[in-house]
TrEMBL record:
Ligand binding (Ca(2+) 1): 62, 65, 67, 69, 71, 83
Residue positions binding Ca(2+) 2: 186, 240, 243, 248
Binding site for heme b: 185
Name recorded for this polypeptide: Peroxidase
Any Pfam family the entry gives: peroxidase
Catalytic activity from the UniProt record: 2 a phenolic donor + H2O2 = 2 a phenolic radical donor + 2 H2O
SUPFAM superfamilies the record matches: Heme-dependent peroxidases (SSF48113)
Similarity comment: family membership: Belongs to the peroxidase family. Ascorbate peroxidase subfamily.
Organism, as annotated: Abeliophyllum distichum
Length: 327
C-alpha cells in the first residue's frame, strides 16, 4: 500500500512539473530564443548531417538520468566525475554546438534560457531538418545542480525487449514509446564494439547471430573484424543502411528483414509484444512520425525542474558559482 502511494505521488509530481512547461515560454523574456537555436542548428546541419543523431542521443541520455536537466553537459573536475565521463556517454557528442547556442543566447538574453531547453529545442529542430516531424515543444525547464557518473544507468544495446522496457517504464514511458524512440536509430551510427559478437561468435556459439541477415553479417565482419579496439579507433557503421541521414521509417523495414545492427533493434521485430507495432510503423511513415513527435514531447517532460528549482546556467558545462556545493 505504501509503495502504491509513493508511485501515485511520483506521478502527481511529474504531472505537476510538466504542466508548468508551455509552448512559447520565452515569448516575453527572450522572444528570439527558438529562432536563435534553430538558425545555429541549421548552420551546423548544413555541414554535418550527423548532428541529428548526435543531439537525439544526447537528449535521450540526459533525460534518462535525473530527468531532462542538462546534467549530461557538466564537465568533470579533478575531484568529481560527471555524467559526461560515464562509460555509456563517452560517445555522446555535439557539446560544442550547445556551447555555441548558449553563447548566442547569453548575448541576446542573459541568464534566461536554460541549457535543458536548448537541448530539447535543438534536437527538435535537427529532427525536422533531417525530414522528421516538426512539432511544438513546451519549454520552461531549468538546469540541474547535480551530475554524477555513478548515477548513469542506461539500457544497453544487447538487451531483449523485456529487459529493456523496465528502463522506459520507470520513466513513465510505454512500450509503444520505447519502440518509437528507438526509431531514432534511423539516423544513427554504432561502434563495432556494440554488436561485434553478433558477427562471428554470438553468445559463445562460434557462429554469427542467426537473427541477422547473413550477407549483412559478412559485410559488417569485413568492416569490424573480430578484435576489439579502443573506442577512439573503433569503426562505426550506420544503423540504417539505406537512408542513413534521412529521418524516415526505413529502420523498421530493415529490422523486419533481419538487418538490425544492434541486438535490441533486431529484437523489436522478433518479440511478440513489439513486432505488431514495428509492422505498423514499417508500413505507415506518418503514423511513425506522429508517434515520434508525441514520444519526444513525453520524454522531454521526464523529471523536469521548473519554477525556482535548479538554475539557469551561464555556461552549460559548469554549475553557477553559488551552486557548486551541490556537485
Amino acid at each position: 500500500m505504501e509503495k502504491k502511494i509513493l508511485i501515485l505521488l511520483f506521478c502527481y509530481l511529474v504531472h505537476f512539473a510538466s504542466a508548468q512547461l508551455r509552448v512559447g515560454f520565452y515569448d516575453s523574456t527572450c522572444r528570439r530564443a527558438e529562432t536563435i537555436i534553430g538558425q545555429l542548428v541549421q548552420k551546423r546541419f548544413g555541414t554535418d548531417r550527423s548532428i541529428t543523431a548526435a543531439l537525439l542521443r544526447m537528449h535521450f541520455h540526459d533525460c534518462f538520468v535525473r530527468g531532462c536537466d542538462a546534467s549530461i553537459l557538466i564537465d568533470s573536475t579533478k575531484s568529481t566525475s560527471s555524467e559526461k565521463d560515464a562509460g555509456p556517454n563517452l560517445t555522446v557528442r555535439g557539446f560544442e554546438l550547445i556551447d555555441e547556442i548558449k553563447k548566442a543566447l547569453e548575448a541576446a538574453c542573459p541568464s534566461t534560457v536554460s541549457c535543458a531547453d536548448i537541448i530539447t529545442v535543438a534536437t527538435r529542430d535537427a529532427v525536422g531538418l533531417a525530414g522528421g516531424p516538426r512539432y511544438n515543444v513546451p519549454t520552461g525547464r531549468r538546469d540541474g545542480l547535480v551530475s554524477d557518473s555513478a548515477e548513469v544507468n542506461l539500457p544497453g544495446p544487447s538487451l531483449s525487449v523485456p529487459e529493456a522496457f523496465p528502463f522506459f517504464r520507470a520513466k513513465g514511458l510505454t512500450l509503444n514509446d520505447m519502440i518509437t524512440l528507438l526509431g531514432a536509430h534511423t539516423v544513427g551510427v554504432a561502434h563495432c564494439g556494440f554488436f561485434q559478437d553478433r558477427l562471428s561468435n554470438f553468445q559463445g556459439t562460434g557462429k554469427p547471430d542467426l537473427t541477422m541477415d547473413s550477407a549483412l553479417a559478412a559485410r559488417l565482419l569485413r568492416t569490424c573484424g573480430t578484435t576489439s579496439r579502443p573506442l577512439n579507433r573503433d569503426p562505426t557503421v550506420f544503423l540504417d543502411q539505406n537512408t542513413s541521414f534521412i529521418f524516415d521509417n526505413q529502420f523498421y523495414n530493415q529490422i523486419r528483414s533481419k538487418k538490425g545492427i544492434l541486438q535490441i533493434d533486431q529484437q523489436l521485430a522478433l518479440d511478440r509484444s513489439s513486432a505488431p507495432i514495428v509492422s505498423s510503423f514499417a508500413s505507415n511513415k506518418n503514423a511513425f512520425q506522429q508517434n515520434f513527435a508525441n514520444a519526444m514531447i513525453k520524454m522531454a517532460n521526464i523529471q523536469v525542474l521548473v519554477g525556482k528549482a535548479g538554475e539557469i546556467r551561464k555556461n552549460c558545462r559548469v554549475f553557477n558559482p553559488k551552486s557548486r556545493k551541490g556537485f
